[in-house]
Amino acid sequence: MFQPKPITADAIAGALAKAERYRLLNEPEAADSICLDILDIDPENQDALVTLLLARTDLIARGVGGAMGDARAVLQQLKEPYDREYYAGIISERRGHAQLLSPSLGATYVAYDWFREAMICYERAMELRPTGNDDAVLRWNSCARVLNAHPEIAPREPEEEHTVVLDD
User: Fold this and answer.
1) What is the mean pLDDT of each run of 10 residues along the chain (168 residues)?
2) CA–CA separation, 66 and 122 (whole Å)
3) pTM for this structure?
4) How many CB atoms lie within 10 A of CB 32?
């Protein structure tokens, strides 16, 4: 088994920039690895945790097993309540988008549920947001527009009650 080599503390800023770049290049596995290198020497680095969480959400749409759980595990390490709510919304929203790509029966119902969960997280984040930070509003609006533009993404119909009448 190969043991990863440690980076130096002086390299954290550059490594973080590379991790963000790899995410933009659609290479979340490389970004994930770099973030783990950063976290090995600075376990509470919030920027590395956020980039790691986002890299792991990038894997949700690829159908990588465990990606959602891995992203949620990182979520618990974020210190700020606003960040935990906002990034919980990101995780749910990305799961909703991934569900839309699924050919399974009922995928649009499940996608609706994920988008609504994201919107609820964003609403909680809005209450906690720092002055001048409308990121949660922007994400909420994005979810709303997806749902408004695609009426097929809808909640499940409540199941009708069926009464069975037995004749004597």
Assistant:
1) 96 98 97 98 98 96 89 97 98 94 81 96 98 98 96 77 52
2) 23
3) 0.89
4) 24
